Amino acid sequence: MNISPEGVATTCAYCGVGCGVRMQLQADGITISGDKNHPANAGRLCVKGHALGETLGLAGRLLHPEINHQRVSWQQALDAVAQGIQRVIREHGPQAVAFYGSGQLLTEDYYVANKLMKGFIGAGNMDTNSRLCMASAVVGYKRAFGGDAVPCNYQDLELADCVVLVGSNTAWAHPVVYQRLAKAKAERPDMRIVVIDPRKTATCDIADLHLALRPGSDAALFCGALYAIAAAGKLDTDFLQQHTQGARETLQSVQAWTPETTADYCGLPLEQLQAFYQLLARSQRLVTLYSMGVNQSSSGVDKCNAIINLHLATGQIGREGCGPFSITGQPNAMGGREVGGLANQLAAHMGFTAQDIDRVGRFWNSKTVAQSAGLNAVELFRAIETGQVKAVWIMGTNPLVSLPDTDRVRTGLARCPLVIVSDVMRDTDTTQIAHILLPAQGWGEKNGTVTNSERCISRQRAFLSTPGEAKPDWWILSQVAQRLGFGANFAYAHPAEIFCEHAALSGFENGGTRAFDISGLAQLSREQWDVMRPIQWPVTAACPQGTPRLFTDNTFLHADGKARLIAVTPRLPVNLPGAAWPLVMNTGRVRDQWHTMTRTGKSARLMQHISEPYCQFHPDDGPGIQAGELVRVSSSHGWLLLRASPDVLQPRGSVFVPVHWSSRFSQQARVSTLVAAVTDPLSGQPESKHMPVSLRKWNAAWYAELFVRAEGYAPPATAYWSRITQPGVTHFTLADSSRPDDWMAWLNDYYPMDGKICQFACQGDDAFSLLVWAQSELQLAFYAQPGPLTLIRQTVVSAFMHPPQNARQRLALLAGRAEGEKTPAGAMICSCFGVSETQIVDAVRLGCRSAQQLGSTLKCGTNCGSCIPELKKIIAGQIVVLNG
């Protein structure tokens, strides 16, 4: 380990908040805490951040290069990559090669990948999984401001009179930002918070107003807001006249969006809508924070511009507590935007104009710079399917789980002549199809920079020794570039050299025409780069300390210095529900998981809050379906098997399904399988929030839970299985439509029991349980019955480490509980302190009536605070029961 006594300051591996993390080496291992000196979080961490140490194990890691899944040397692997790319270019041209990156790459990695593809291979086909989360926000900013520039920062959320959260379950997806916002509201009771979301999410806990609008109607809502602001005489006419263009046309375009029309279109009560508009009219400092619910739409760009229009029309930009704020989903999605990681960007916020191509070519000393934009993510994988792209290099992402219409993508990728994957994990949906696997360094091993949602560049520092033969992505790319004949341009010895080159390019012939300029950091020594503190760009000679806010002088990035209001025409999503598919599927994250669970899925603690993939629906949309049963959710593209989660708070006519479960964790739960590859025509971002589906109960003959000593067992051959991470134990939940004739024979085929002691119990054809022992240690536990089970799981898992000591305890374990235990613990509500739903309910019944009182009694909610909305929900529900 590379941890000094004073610890290592680094940046979290998860969302776009970009929290600072401090790693400290203690006698019992590594301790993780929030960095109190980091401006993003000031010491706060969410539960995922606190659990980072639980994800650092080497189980499942890709540690050596492989060709056709056979270990080879780095020399062989790099030669094969270079020779394969050269062969494709020789036979089909550079446009037949593509790179697909990730917001998990560090900026230095991203820079080298983009430079190699667009600068020297000579094709624009470098895109990234960030296309799936914030490409529409990029285009919205560029249309309005003339550049991809987030104008505000996290502090503005705390200084605003009114914060509007649109399409963002901030409490779960960006918990530290949510906690900053909750704290600000507690300190400033006159602050108002509005949540705009079809679902009543945990974020609504701090909302003064929740607008549960019709899915997809956001643009109409904000067109109506602009109409209402104009009608109330609240336009900033001086700002509009002096600093914008397009105001007249835009204001004319919203004349049809009266409150009555807007309320009808959005499915909102007129009184509620008018209350929202009156709140906007009174606000002097407005921040609108928007995320995937806006971006992931076939009209996402227009939705972004409808939001930005409101800020421009009221002059609420470039000031404290003001601005349209797109918050990103990945730790370095912003860094990818900076280097040109999207296919429609060249480099350093330059595009494919003749002037920019010439400028970048001179800087890189290359005559082969790409002349036009490349294929975006959906187009790229379609081109692989059709044979247009013959070689693809996928870096740090799992597109066979995240891309829409996943089964079609899988089929196409399987036909690609050359698939190269750089990753930290050996067994993902995508690595299974690769011809060449390249082991990359993971978080804690690699060294570089990331940029968060507020334009803050932070160092991500190594504190672990590199395992096996893993290498930094920038090194892997540079080695291939040298083999392709570009050695002099990729002779990097350290990531600091790459960062300084990237910084120099950002300022090259800039002259204030591009907001992204960190040329003030281009001369850093290696030592200065290593100790660099977080800083917000631009960073120039004129602004050496960074820039918290943009456009403070009301000068924008279009050639005339003026911003643009964009007239938008609200339109419904492309795919609408009908007779065959009557419900709308919304997708998103859950609190304790992230992306496709390749990291968070390693933590047993993070699996306790929500352990299985589920479908949340209103009970009237699934009459007779009980919680915990299985449902089949189908679309025109595929189907899923999920746990039923009926909830009266879920809007009628829509369902919610989380995005995280891959084929490593569940049999049939990859939500992207159901999603059509419909994209925004301006950004290429897929519509992931609005897919027509059907819902019906799946008739299971039996449900079961299986626990086996040691990790890494494959699942049994059942129609439904889901893997739940446990320490030292493989744990599956199972179900099937037909019952085995002989449970013992069925289990023996899966786990041979010769020479072991078996203890089992039967209740006719209804239930069966089995414990398998060897040398007084539990080897296997299995429980099956016709309906969903209510085991006390932690008791069963604990029995593998601490076996029962007598016959009574073993008999109780055969029933799935300890001696004297009667009630399952329920979901783990507070993952930080391991506080279950049952413990919370008991505490409420004993007199706790607030989250603060629960915190004093059980400690829940006193660390990261992510569970506080759920604590309040449980309290409210129990008070109803107690008073009923």
Report on the architecture of this protein.
This protein is an alpha/beta fold and 884 residues long. It has a 7-stranded mixed sheet with strand order 5-4-16-15-14-6-7, with helices on both faces. A 6-stranded mixed barrel has the order 21-25-22-24-23-26. A hairpin with a 4-residue loop joins strand 23 (630-634) and strand 24. It is globular, with a radius of gyration of 27 Å.
Brief characterization of the structure:
The chain contains 28 helices and 34 strands.
How many β-strand runs?
34
Proportion of β residues?
15-25%
Order of strands across the biggest sheet?
Answer: 5-4-16-15-14-6-7
Described by strand count, sense and barrel closure, the largest sheet is:
7 strands, mixed
Helix percentage: 25-40%
* Low-pLDDT sequence parts: none
Broad shape: globular
Report mean pLDDT, rounded to a whole number: 95
Number of helices: 28
Q: What is the C-alpha radius of gyration, as a whole number of Å?
A: 27 Å
**What distance separates the N and C termini?**
58 Å
Structural class comes to: alpha/beta
